[in-house]
């Protein structure tokens, strides 16, 4: 009996020894970035899909199992995953990826946060103490994150240092070129008034110069009432907007409701890799985002 | 840090300067604005290039310790007075609700990492009638690694699916009948629990517990060494595509009861007596939960189906009518129960749920001396159907309405109506599976 048990244990433990570095990416954009920087040196598991609200994920058994064998965890941080990641980390009992260890990477630490609340009060809705966590909508944010992530990969897998450095250099060069292209394409969007379904676009607005005049959520995380939507509609008469923005994972009804009445297009943005059929990697995600915004302008 | 102080001082100096220069010209002001902007840019650049050390944004460390308070209350409309389910008079019968308005227990939770090795959790239940009880008070390891998790102190046993969930996370106002009669709603243990998560792609977890056995079906052990109860459990689970996920489990609980007293037990003489049981108690359980969500986006819509089955075998001696005739003879019985429930989030912030409960009190094998006293077979199947709708406008608020057709007591069918609120304040709660 004991022998069988030991054999079983050994088999299971052997399973853990794999050639490539296991990466647990909380959101698709970080999976895509890791892919760019590490190629086939890593094997990536993406915890959430592009059509899932990353605030609202549950600590599913599959997530716990995948976190168990990860050597590197790449998440947004800034409390975006606060509802489920602490449970997943705890239950995974994997000391390599606990907060503070080398295997724990939070992208939000490497960019300047926007909308950091000056007071913490739930009367203001589901506010994030560290600022708005939706940092992936500004392409420029990927540069410092890529650099830090590449450094982390090197730390964890020094044998492939040269490869990671080369990948980073390539990415940096391509990304700089792409940013210049996107900024040029997006020039007509500067100063354009928009409505956001959820306060999810401050970084995009900040980057492309869009002007957010209203939100469809009275407070972050709260459902808009019919009365509130009516009020927004009234305000729109004074401050007209060009389009209503929402992320692919969000229920389309509130923005369609307002779009129909305010006679503006409802624009759905991929928000992350996989959010639309066109957004297959980080580059096409921004290509598609800008195309959709420009189409909304017409 | 230094940058911030430097920046702050510079701003202060500029402010003082600008207050003094009340008659400053527009060009002066413009220069000042430019200077502030320049400083701002510098600070931003520097904070960009020198990222702040990880402050543990994903962990609960934002509030150290994380403190939460759950406030909850109900309004209950019942047609019948409380009574235990037919055939289960020797089991606990704590429904957790009452007629009219009532405050439910307020739950105060405090948790934090103790040091790099340990995390501590304290959950204190404030009884509306007064008094505080320690619901949970455990320490758990955070750095054992290799899939090992050790917990010690007072915790909810890991058996079944619902047992570990706190009251405020329940989908209905009350627990399923099988939990009420077999586990006194929820079995907490003083002891230690060791879990091991296999390093496999699929979720495979096994765990064991040894403890005092203080709660039903055990009896508190006083002046006795060793362990009073043991639990073994295993869970497996996975996703199927991105839309489906599931977890299934099996558990075994074993304890020994010494002089477990039950009052108001019906007997063959049409009376109600006090009995006492001493013997072994062994319970096996099966549980499963399956969840479906379009695109895996639980924020919009989902369906959850869950069910559990428990079967308890007790073997020992029963003392009949301890206050009167006081006759002791052997008593063996196997009782079981199950429930099946489904909850759907049919639109964001709204849930509807349906639950069916059933119990089987079994046929007891009663020793010869008590054959004429103790009822061995009640010939009745307690059952109940509950329907609920709840609305949670924010993640921290829930208001629920529940209707139940309770036929758990023979001849005392009851239509029940409840309104409940559950509010949580403080630290962000966990999205448990």
What does this structure look like?
The complex is a heterodimer of chains A (298) and B (433). Chain A is of the alpha/beta class. Chain A has two domains: 178 residues, 3-Layer(aba) Sandwich (Rossmann fold); 111 residues, Rossmann fold (3-Layer(aba) Sandwich). Chain A is built from ten helices and eight strands. In chain A, the strands form two sheets. In chain A, strands 2-1-3-4 form a four-stranded parallel β-sheet, covered by helices on one side. In chain A, strand 1, helix 2 and strand 2 form a beta-alpha-beta unit. In chain A, helix 3 crosses helix 4, helix 5 runs antiparallel to helix 6 and helix 6 runs parallel beside helix 10. The longest helix of chain A is centred in the middle third of the chain and has 25 residues. The N and C termini of chain A lie far apart (73 Å). About 2% of the residues of chain A have low confidence. In chain B, helix 1 runs antiparallel to helix 2. In chain B, a hairpin with a 6-residue loop joins strand 5 and strand 6. Helix content of chain B is 12%, strand content 49%. Chain B is built from three helices and 18 strands. Chain B has a 16-stranded antiparallel barrel with strand order 1-3-4-5-6-7-8-9-10-11-12-13-14-16-17-18. Chain B is mainly beta and 433 residues long. Chain B has two domains: 48 residues; 290 residues, Beta Barrel (Porin), CATH 2.40.160. Classes of the chains: A alpha/beta (298), B mainly beta (433). Chains A and B meet through helix 1, helix 3 and helix 4 of A and helix 2, strand 9 and strand 10 of B.
Q: Biggest sheet of chain A, strands in spatial order?
A: 2-1-3-4
State the end-to-end CA separation of chain A: 73 Å
Helix content of chain A: 40-55%
Number of helices of chain A: 10
Number of domains of chain A: 2
Q: How many β-strand runs of chain B?
A: 18
Q: CATH topology of the largest domain in chain B, what is it called?
A: Porin
Number of strands of chain A: 8
> Beta-strand percentage of chain A?
5-15%
Could you state the CATH homologous superfamily of the largest domain in chain A? Nitrogenase molybdenum iron protein domain
Q: Compute the gyration radius of chain A: what is it?
A: 21 Å
The low-pLDDT segments of chain B are: 1-24, 43-56
- Biggest sheet record of chain B: 16 strands, antiparallel, barrel
Termini of chain B, distance in Å? 40 Å
What is the CATH class designation of the largest domain in chain B? Answer: Mainly Beta
Mean pLDDT of chain A: 90
- How many domains in all of chain B? 2
Name the helix and strand elements of chain B from N-terminus to C-terminus, one letter apiece.
HHEEEEEEHEEEEEEEEEEEE
> Biggest sheet of chain A, open or closed, and with what strands and sense?
4 strands, parallel
Helix content of chain B: 10-25%
- Look at the structure and give the CATH class of the largest domain in chain A: Alpha Beta
């Amino acid at each position: 009996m004991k022998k069988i048990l030991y054999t079983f244990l050994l088999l299971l433990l052997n399973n853990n020894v794999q050639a490539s570095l296991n990466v647990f990416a909380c959101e698709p954009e970080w999976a895509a970035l890791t892919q760019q920087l590490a190629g086939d040196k890593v094997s990536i598991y993406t915890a959430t899909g592009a059509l899932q609200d990353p605030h609202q994920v549950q600590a599913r058994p599959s997530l716990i199992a995948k976190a168990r064998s990860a050597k590197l965890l790449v998440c947004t941080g800034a409390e975006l995953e606060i509802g489920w990641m602490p449970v997943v980390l705890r239950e995974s009992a994997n000391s390599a990826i606990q907060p503070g260890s080398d295997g724990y990477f939070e992208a939000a630490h490497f960019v300047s946060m926007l909308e950091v609340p000056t007071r913490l009060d739930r009367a203001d809705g589901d506010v994030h103490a560290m600022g708005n966590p939706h940092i992936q909508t500004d392409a420029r944010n990927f540069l410092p994150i890529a650099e830090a992530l590449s450094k982390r990969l090197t730390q964890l897998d020094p044998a492939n240092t040269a490869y990671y450095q080369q990948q980073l250099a390539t990415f940096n060069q391509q990304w700089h070129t792409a940013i210049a292209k996107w900024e040029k394409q997006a020039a007509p969007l500067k100063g354009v008034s928009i409505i956001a379904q959820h306060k999810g676009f401050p970084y995009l607005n900040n980057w492309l110069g869009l002007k957010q005049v209203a939100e469809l959520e009275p407070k972050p995380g709260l459902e808009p009432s019919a009365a509130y939507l009516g009020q927004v509609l009234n305000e729109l008469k004074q401050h007209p907007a060009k389009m209503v923005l929402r992320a692919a994972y969000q229920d389309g009804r509130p923005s369609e409701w307002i779009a129909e009445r305010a006679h503006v297009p409802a624009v759905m943005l991929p928000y992350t890799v996989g959010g639309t059929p066109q957004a297959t990697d980080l580059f096409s995600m921004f290509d598609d985002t800008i195309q959709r915004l420009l189409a909304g302008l017409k | 840090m230094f940058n911030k102080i430097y920046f702050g001082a510079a701003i202060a100096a500029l402010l003082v300067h600008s207050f003094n220069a009340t008659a400053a010209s527009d060009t002066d002001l413009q220069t000042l604005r430019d200077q502030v902007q320049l400083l701002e840019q510098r600070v931003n650049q520097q904070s960009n290039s020198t990222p702040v050390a990880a402050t543990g944004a994903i962990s609960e460390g934002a509030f150290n310790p994380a403190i939460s308070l759950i406030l909850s209350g109900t309004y209950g409309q019942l047609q019948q007075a409380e009574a235990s389910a037919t055939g289960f008079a020797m089991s606990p019968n704590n429904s957790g609700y009452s007629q009219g308005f009532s405050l439910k227990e307020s739950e105060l939770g405090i948790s934090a990492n103790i040091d790099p090795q340990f995390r501590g959790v304290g959950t204190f239940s404030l009884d509306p009638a007064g008094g505080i009880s320690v619901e949970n008070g455990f320490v758990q390891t955070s750095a054992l690694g290799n899939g090992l998790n050790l917990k010690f102190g007072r915790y909810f046993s890991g058996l079944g699916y619902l047992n570990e969930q706190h009251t405020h996370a329940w989908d209905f106002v009350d627990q399923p009948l099988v939990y009420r009669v077999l586990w006194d709603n929820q079995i907490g243990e003083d002891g230690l629990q060791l879990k091991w998560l296999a390093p496999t792609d699929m979720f495979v977890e096994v765990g064991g517990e040894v403890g005092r056995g203080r709660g039903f079906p055990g009896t508190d052990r006083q002046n006795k060494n060793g362990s009073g109860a043991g639990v073994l459990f295993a869970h497996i689970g996975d996703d199927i595509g991105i839309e489906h996920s599931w977890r299934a489990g099996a558990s075994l609980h074993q304890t020994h009861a010494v002089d477990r007293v039950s009052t108001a037990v019906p007997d063959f003489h049409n009376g109600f007596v006090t009995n006492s049981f001493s013997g072994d108690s062994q319970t096996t359980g099966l549980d499963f939960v399956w969840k479906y969500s379009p695109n895996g986006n639980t924020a919009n819509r989902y369906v959850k189906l869950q069910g559990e089955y428990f079967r308890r075998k007790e073997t020992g001696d029963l003392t009949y009518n301890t206050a009167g005739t006081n006759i002791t003879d052997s008593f063996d019985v196997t009782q079981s129960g199950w429930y099946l429930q489904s909850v759907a989030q049919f639109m964001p912030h709204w849930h509807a749920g349906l639950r069916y409960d059933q119990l089987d009190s079994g046929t007891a094998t009663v020793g010869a001396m008590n054959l004429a006293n103790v009822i061995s077979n009640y010939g009745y199947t307690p059952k109940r159907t509950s329907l609920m709708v709840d609305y949670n406008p924010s993640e921290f608020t829930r208001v629920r309405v529940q209707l139940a057709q309770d036929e758990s007591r023979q001849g005392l069918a009851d239509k029940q109506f409840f309104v409940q609120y559950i509010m949580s304040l403080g630290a962000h709660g966990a999205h448990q599976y």
